[in-house]
C-alpha cells in the first residue's frame, strides 16, 4: 500500500467544499463544511496525549478497589526503587497542599459540601478513587511499579441505594450523613389542584446512571519553568479551570496558564475540575518537571464523573378531558460520594422544566440530593433537562392511555399556543417564543402517523409476535446558560456572560478570539460565518483562536448549549465595535461625516457616490497609522461581552416507531422523525450533526447504556463489552427537519442545539416501547429497555 | 494499553515455536491478537513470552480434502468467509463467521485463535462442535487429533498440551439435503452473542431426518443441544418441530451477566433454536 499523503488529502477535503459563491450571499444559513475537519480527519491533531515536553514524566494512579474503607496503611516504598521510577506518593504526601476539589453550586441553605481531597488520605468512598501514584520515565514502567504499592484497607459498609441511604439506620458515607441537600419549590395551590381531581396518575421512573464516554479519553499534561505553570488538559472549561486550579493549589492565577488543545468530545464530562488535573499540577510543582497522565478507557469508566441517576416520583392531576391541573415532582438525586463542580446543580436545572410546554394551575418540585459510595455524578449532555423531559413526557403518555385519547391530542389540549408567547410558566420561566403546533404538524406528515397507527392496530389484531409502538416527545428545554443575574439567584458560583474579540490584521484578514471552548461543535466554522457576514469579509479570511488562557484571556467556556447563543453573540458585538471604529476612520479618510457612510459587502461607501474604503483598506490604514483622526487608536480591534437577559428555549416534536420482538424482547427502531426549532440556523450541517449525535445519545439511554454497580459497590461496566454504546449500525436513518421561530433574547435569534436531541429522544423511544406493549398490560419498562427487561416486563404482565 | 512486560519471539518454524512453548509454560501463542491483547491490556493475563506464529505459512489457508474441508488455524475470519471451499463444503462456518465482531477485527482475528481461545461466547466454537470438527494439534512429538467434543474443556480452557499448537481443523462435509443457519442474538451490532444457535438440519420430505444444534454462551463451554437434537429427529415441520425446540436448553447451565440471567438465556435458546431450525429447513 502506498503511503497516505495526508497533505494532499487535507487539500482535497478543503477544496471539496463546493460552495464558493461571492460574499454577497449571506453566510448565515449556509451549509458550510467545517474548517476543522481536514486537519482532524488527517490526524494533524493536538490531543493532549499527543503532546510532549522535554524530560516528560508519566504518572499513573493506584485506585481503590473498595467502595468504602478506611485506609490504614499505604506503603509506596516498593515502587520507589524500580526501574524508571522517579517518585511514588500516597495521599498522605499531598495532605497539606492538595486542598479540596471545588463545588461551585451550593443549591440550598442546608447543603453539605464534604471535603474532597484529590487523592484519598484516610478514607475511600468509591471504587476508583486515587490512593497513590507512581511517576516514571514511561507509562509502562509506572504501571508495573504500581503493583508494588501496598495498601491496607479496613472495610466500611458500602452505601448504594438512595432510599436506604436516607433511612435512620443506614451506614454513612460522610459523618454529616447521607443527605446532601433538599429543596422545594411550590407554585400555585397544589393541594387544590389535586383535591377532587378526576384523574390522578402516579408513577416512579428511574433515570439510570450513565457514563459520558467521550471519544477522547481524558489526559492532562502539566509543566513548569520554575516560575510559571502550564496545564494542557482535555477540558471543556479552560477559563473556569484556571481560576479553580489557582484557588485549589495556591498557584497565583497570573502564573498559571490552562490550554485545552484539540478536545475530542465532552458531553459535560469535561466540565469539571478533576483530581488528576490538580495532582498533575502539584506533581509538576514538586518535581519541577513535566508530568503527563492519560486515562485508559476502563479507568475512565470508573472515574469520569457519571451522569443522571435519579429516582423520580411523579404525580399528575388532570380534569376528565385531560386538561392538566397540577404536577408534583419528588426527586432523589444520586450525588455519588462527593459534590463536584456542579453536581448538586444538575437536578436543579430540571426544577423549572418538568412542567415543560404545558399550562397548569399548580406545580411542586422537591429534590433531595443523596450521598452514596459511587463515583460522583455531574453534568451529562442535557444535565437535569433530559430527566425532567423524560418524566413529563412519559406522564403525558400515561395520561393519554388512562383517558383513551391519542397522546398528541392530550398534549395539544395542554400546550402553550403559539399566539400566547411570551408566556410565563407555572415554574416562573418566561418562554420568549415557540410554535409547538407548527413543529408537530410537520413531524406528523413526515412520519406518516396515521398509517403507522393503522399498521399497529393490524399487528395487534393478528397477535403478531412483532408489535409496533409509536412514541411521542414534544419537548422544550432551557439553554444558552447565561443570564448572570438568574444564575446568581440560583446561587451558581459564576456568571454566564461570554467574551469575544476581533483582531483586524494588517492584510485585512481577521482573527477571532472566543471565550467558548469547542470540543467537537465546530465553532471555528460557525464563528467564521458570523464574522464574514458582519464584516463583509470572505469566510476563508477568518480564523478563530480558542481554548488557551494565554490567547483567549476571558471566557466562560462551553456547556449548556451556550456557545452560539452567548459566545457567538459576543463575537457579533465585537464586530459591531470594529465597524464603529472603521466608520470613524473611513469618514476621516473620505472626508465626510460618518452618517454619510453606508456599510455593505465589506465596504463603507459615501452615499450616492463611488467613493469607498473597504474594511481591509481600513485595517491597513489603522496599522500604518499614517493618517488617523484625533482620538482614534492604531487598530480596529475590539472586545465585547454578551450576557442575555433570558435563557433560550429550543423545542420540537420527535416521533419514534419501534418494533418489539415479543419473543425475545428485542427493540428495533424502525423510523425516527425529529422536527426541531432551534431558532435561526447559522450552519444547517452543524445543526444536523448536533441533532444526530444528540438523538443517538438519547436513544442510547433509552435502550443501551447503564453503569452498573454490584452489591459491594464494584463497577461492573468497566469496558465497552459491558457498557454498550450503539453505533451507526444500531440506529435508524433519522429524518430531520426544522421550524424556525427566532429567539428574542439575542440579535441572531438563535437558541442553541447541543443538547436538544438528547433531551427529546429518550422519552420518545421509551414511550414507543411502552406503547407497543400496552395491550399486554405493560405500563412501564425501566431504562435501558434491554431485551431482557422487555421480556421480563411481558412475563410479569402475562402472570 | 499498558500490559505488563513480556518477551516477544517470532519463530520461523512450527517446530521452533512448539519448542519455545514446551520450555516455558507461561509462554502464549499470539495469532491475530484480538482476544489475547485485550486480556493483556486489562492485565488479566501475564504471559512471560508471546510466541508470534503469524509468519508460519503452513498454518494458513483452506483446503478441500474430499470428505472434509481443512481450515488452517491462522486463516483470518475474512479469508474464511470468502473461501470457496468453506462456502461449498461447510457453509455454516462461513455463515457464522460473518457474525464475528466487525470487519476490522475479522481481518486480524483467526479461525484457530477463536477456537483455541475457547470462549463459549465466541461464535465459532459452537459451530465447529455442531459440525463434529476434528482439531489437529502439532508439537515436537508429532501430530494429534482431538475431536471437537473433547477440545473445549472449560471457560477459556482447551485440550491442547503445553508445547502443542493448533495447526488446523478438519470440518467433515455433510452430504446433500442439509440446510444450515447461525442465529446470533446480541444487543448492538458489534457485541458478543448473548446466546447463539448453530443449526445443521437434514430434511426429508415434510420432516427432519437429522439435526445438529450447537449453542453459544449457554455454559462454560460451547454445548450441543442433545435433547433437542433427539426430539427433532423425525419431527414433522410445524408444531412438532416447535415442540422439539422447547428442549433446546435442557441440561444447560448458562452464565449470568449484565446481558442476561440464566432463565432468560434458556428462554432465548429455545426461541432461537426454533428460528435457526426453521431457517435451516427453509420453512417460515
Ligand atoms: C471488539 C471485539 C469484538 C469481538 N467480537 C466477537 C464476536 O462477536 N464473536 C466472536 O466469535 N469473536 C469475537 N471477537 C474475537 C475474535 O473473533 C478473535 O479473532 C478471536 O477470538 C481470537 O483470534 P485471534 O487470532 O485474534 O487470537 P489471539 O488473540 O491471538 O489468541 C487467542 C488465544 O488463543 C491462543 N491461540 C491462538 N492461536 C493459536 C494456535 N494456533 N494454537 C494454539 N493456541 C492459539 C492464544 O494463545 C490465546 O490464548 C471479538 C474481538 C474483539 C476485539
TrEMBL record, chain A:
Species assigned in the record: Nonomuraea wenchangensis
Key words of the record: Molybdenum, Oxidoreductase
Entry keyword Electron transport: no
Ranges of residues in domain Aldehyde oxidase/xanthine dehydrogenase a/b hammerhead: 42-157
Recorded GO MF terms: iron ion binding; oxidoreductase activity
Signal peptide stretch: none
Pfam families according to UniProt: Ald_Xan_dh_C (PF01315), MoCoBD_1 (PF02738), MoCoBD_2 (PF20256)
Residue ranges of the region described as Disordered: 1-37
Protein name: Carbon-monoxide dehydrogenase large subunit
Superkingdom of source: Bacteria
Entry-linked InterPro entries: Ald_Oxase/Xan_DH_a/b, Ald_Oxase/Xan_DH_a/b_sf, Ald_Oxase/xanthine_DH-like, AldOxase/xan_DH_MoCoBD1, AldOxase/xan_DH_MoCoBD2, AldOxase/xan_DH_Mopterin-bd_sf
SMART domains for this protein: Ald_Xan_dh_C
From TrEMBL, chain B:
GO MF annotation terms: FAD binding; oxidoreductase activity
PROSITE patterns in alphabetical order: FAD_PCMH
UniProt domain FAD-binding PCMH-type: residue ranges: 1-176
Record carries keyword Hydrolase: no
Signal peptide: none
Record has Flavoprotein as a keyword: yes
Keywords carried by this UniProt record: FAD, Flavoprotein, Oxidoreductase
Regions that span the bilayer: none
A Pfam cross-reference name: FAD_binding_5
Protein's name according to its UniProt entry: Carbon-monoxide dehydrogenase medium subunit
Species: Nonomuraea wenchangensis
Amino acid at each position: 500500500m502506498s503511503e497516505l499523503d495526508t497533505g494532499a488529502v487535507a487539500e482535497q477535503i478543503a477544496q471539496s467544499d463546493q460552495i464558493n459563491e461571492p460574499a454577497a450571499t449571506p453566510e448565515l444559513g449556509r451549509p458550510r463544511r467545517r474548517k476543522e475537519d481536514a486537519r482532524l480527519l488527517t490526524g494533524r491533531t493536538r490531543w493532549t496525549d499527543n503532546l510532549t515536553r522535554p524530560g516528560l514524566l508519566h504518572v499513573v494512579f493506584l485506585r481503590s478497589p473498595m467502595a468504602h474503607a478506611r485506609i490504614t496503611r499505604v506503603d509506596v516504598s516498593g515502587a520507589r526503587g524500580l526501574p524508571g521510577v522517579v517518585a511514588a506518593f500516597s495521599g498522605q504526601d499531598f495532605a497539606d497542599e492538595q486542598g479540596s476539589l471545588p463545588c461551585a453550586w451550593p443549591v440550598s441553605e442546608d447543603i453539605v459540601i464534604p471535603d474532597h481531597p484529590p487523592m484519598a488520605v484516610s478514607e475511600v468512598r468509591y471504587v476508583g478513587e486515587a490512593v497513590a501514584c507512581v511517576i516514571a520515565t514511561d507509562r509502562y514502567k509506572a504501571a508495573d511499579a504500581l503493583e508494588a504499592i501496598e495498601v491496607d484497607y479496613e472495610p466500611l459498609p458500602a452505601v448504594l441505594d438512595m432510599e436506604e441511604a436516607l433511612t435512620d439506620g443506614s451506614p454513612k458515607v460522610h459523618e454529616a450523613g447521607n443527605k446532601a441537600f433538599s429543596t422545594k419549590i411550590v407554585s400555585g395551590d397544589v393541594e387544590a389542584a389535586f383535591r377532587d381531581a378526576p384523574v390522578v396518575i402516579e408513577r416512579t421512573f428511574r433515570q439510570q446512571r450513565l457514563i459520558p464516554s467521550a471519544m477522547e479519553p481524558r489526559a492532562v499534561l502539566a509543566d513548569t519553568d520554575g516560575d510559571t505553570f502550564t496545564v494542557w488538559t482535555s477540558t471543556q472549561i479552560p477559563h473556569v479551570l484556571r481560576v479553580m486550579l489557582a484557588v485549589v493549589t495556591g498557584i497565583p492565577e497570573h502564573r498559571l496558564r490552562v490550554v485545552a488543545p484539540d478536545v475530542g468530545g465532552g458531553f459535560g464530562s469535561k466540565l469539571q475540575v478533576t483530581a488528576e488535573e490538580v495532582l498533575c499540577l502539584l506533581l509538576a510543582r514538586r518535581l519541577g518537571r513535566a508530568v503527563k497522565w492519560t486515562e485508559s478507557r476502563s479507568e475512565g469508566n470508573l472515574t469520569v464523573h457519571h451522569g443522571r441517576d435519579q429516582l423520580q416520583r411523579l404525580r399528575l392531576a388532570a380534569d376528565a378531558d385531560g386538561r392538566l391541573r397540577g404536577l408534583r415532582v419528588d426527586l432523589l438525586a444520586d450525588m455519588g460520594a462527593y459534590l463536584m463542580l456542579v453536581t448538586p446543580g444538575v437536578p436543579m436545572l430540571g426544577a423549572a422544566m418538568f412542567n415543560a410546554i404545558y399550562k397548569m394551575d399548580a406545580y411542586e418540585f422537591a429534590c433531595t440530593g443523596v450521598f452514596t459510595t459511587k463515583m460522583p455524578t455531574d453534568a451529562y449532555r442535557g444535565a437535569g433537562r433530559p430527566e425532567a423531559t423524560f418524566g413529563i413526557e412519559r406522564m403525558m403518555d400515561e395520561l393519554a392511555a388512562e383517558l383513551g385519547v391519542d397522546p398528541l391530542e392530550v398534549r395539544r389540549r395542554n400546550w402553550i399556543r403559539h399566539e400566547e408567547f411570551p408566556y410565563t410558566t407555572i415554574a416562573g420561566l418566561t418562554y420568549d417564543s415557540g410554535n409547538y403546533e407548527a413543529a408537530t404538524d410537520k413531524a406528523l406528515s413526515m412520519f406518516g402517523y396515521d398509517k403507522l397507527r393503522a399498521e399497529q392496530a393490524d399487528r395487534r389484531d393478528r397477535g403478531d409476535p412483532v408489535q409496533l409502538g409509536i412514541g411521542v416527545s414534544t419537548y422544550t428545554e432551557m439553554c444558552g446558560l447565561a443570564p448572570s443575574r438568574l444564575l446568581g439567584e440560583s446561587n451558581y458560583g459564576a456568571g454566564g456572560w461570554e467574551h469575544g474579540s476581533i483582531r483586524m490584521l494588517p492584510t485585512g484578514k481577521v482573527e477571532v478570539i472566543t471565550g467558548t471552548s469547542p470540543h467537537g461543535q465546530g465553532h471555528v466554522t460557525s464563528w467564521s460565518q458570523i464574522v464574514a457576514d458582519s464584516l463583509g469579509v470572505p469566510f476563508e479570511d477568518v480564523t478563530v483562536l480558542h481554548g488557551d488562557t494565554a490567547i483567549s484571556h476571558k471566557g466562560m467556556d462551553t456547556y449548556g448549549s451556550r456557545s452560539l447563543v452567548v459566545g457567538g453573540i459576543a463575537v457579533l458585538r465585537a464586530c459591531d465595535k470594529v465597524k464603529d471604529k472603521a466608520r470613524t476612520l473611513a469618514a476621516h479618510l473620505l472626508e465626510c461625516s460618518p452618517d454619510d457612510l453606508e456599510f455593505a459587502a465589506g465596504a463603507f461607501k459615501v452615499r450616492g457616490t463611488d467613493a469607498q474604503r473597504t474594511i481591509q483598506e481600513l485595517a491597513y490604514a489603522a496599522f500604518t497609522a499614517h493618517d488617523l483622526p484625533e482620538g482614534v487608536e492604531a487598530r480596529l480591534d475590539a472586545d465585547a461581552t454578551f450576557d442575555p437577559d433570558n435563557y433560550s428555549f429550543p423545542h420540537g416534536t420527535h416521533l419514534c416507531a419501534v418494533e418489539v420482538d415479543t419473543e425475545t424482547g428485542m427493540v428495533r427502531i424502525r423510523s425516527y422523525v425529529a422536527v426541531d426549532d432551534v431558532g435561526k440556523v447559522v450552519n444547517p450541517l452543524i445543526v444536523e450533526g448536533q441533532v444526530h449525535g444528540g438523538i443517538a445519545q438519547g436513544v442510547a439511554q433509552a435502550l443501551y447504556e447503564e453503569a452498573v454497580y454490584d452489591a459491594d459497590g464494584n463497577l461492573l461496566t468497566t469496558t465497552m463489552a459491558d457498557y454498550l454504546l450503539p453505533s451507526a449500525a444500531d440506529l435508524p436513518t433519522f429524518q430531520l427537519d426544522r421550524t424556525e421561530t427566532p429567539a428574542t433574547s439575542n440579535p441572531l435569534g438563535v437558541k442553541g442545539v447541543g443538547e436538544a436531541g438528547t433531551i427529546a429522544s429518550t422519552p420518545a423511544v421509551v414511550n414507543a416501547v411502552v406503547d407497543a406493549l400496552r395491550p399486554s398490560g405493560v405500563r412501564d419498562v425501566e431504562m435501558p429497555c434491554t431485551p431482557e427487561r422487555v421480556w421480563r416486563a411481558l412475563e410479569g404482565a402475562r402472570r | 494499553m499498558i500490559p505488563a512486560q513480556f518477551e516477544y519471539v517470532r519463530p520461523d518454524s512450527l517446530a521452533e515455536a512448539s519448542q519455545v512453548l514446551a520450555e516455558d509454560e507461561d509462554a502464549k501463542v499470539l495469532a491475530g491478537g484480538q482476544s489475547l491483547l485485550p486480556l493483556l491490556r486489562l492485565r488479566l493475563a501475564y504471559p512471560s513470552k508471546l510466541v508470534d506464529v503469524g509468519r508460519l505459512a503452513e498454518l494458513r489457508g483452506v483446503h478441500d480434502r474430499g470428505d472434509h474441508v481443512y481450515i488452517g488455524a491462522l486463516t483470518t475470519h475474512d479469508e474464511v468467509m470468502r473461501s470457496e471451499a468453506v462456502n461449498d463444503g461447510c457453509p455454516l462456518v462461513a455463515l457464522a463467521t460473518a457474525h464475528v465482531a466487525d470487519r476490522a477485527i475479522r481481518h486480524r482475528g483467526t479461525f484457530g485463535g477463536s477456537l483455541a481461545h475457547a470462549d463459549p461466547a465466541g461464535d465459532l466454537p459452537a459451530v465447529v462442535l455442531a459440525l463434529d470438527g476434528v482439531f489437529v494439534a502439532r508439537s515436537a512429538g508429532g501430530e494429534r487429533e482431538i475431536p471437537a467434543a473433547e477440545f473445549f474443556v472449560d471457560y477459556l480452557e482447551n485440550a491442547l498440551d503445553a508445547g502443542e499448537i493448533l495447526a488446523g481443523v478438519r470440518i467433515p462435509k455433510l452430504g446433500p439435503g442439509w440446510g444450515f443457519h447461525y442465529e446470533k442474538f446480541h444487543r448492538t451490532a458489534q457485541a458478543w452473542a448473548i446466546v447463539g444457535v448453530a443449526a445443521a438440519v437434514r430434511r426429508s420430505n415434510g420432516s427432519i431426518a437429522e439435526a445438529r444444534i450447537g449453542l453459544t454462551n449457554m455454559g462454560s463451554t460451547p454445548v450441543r443441544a442433545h435433547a433437542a437434537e433427539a426430539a427433532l429427529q423425525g419431527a414433522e415441520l410445524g408444531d412438532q418441530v416447535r415442540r422439539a425446540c422447547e428442549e433446546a436448553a435442557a441440561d444447560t447451565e448458562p452464565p449470568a451477566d449484565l446481558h442476561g440471567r440464566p432463565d432468560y438465556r434458556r428462554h432465548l435458546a429455545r426461541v432461537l433454536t426454533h428460528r435457526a431450525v426453521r431457517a435451516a429447513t427453509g420453512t417460515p
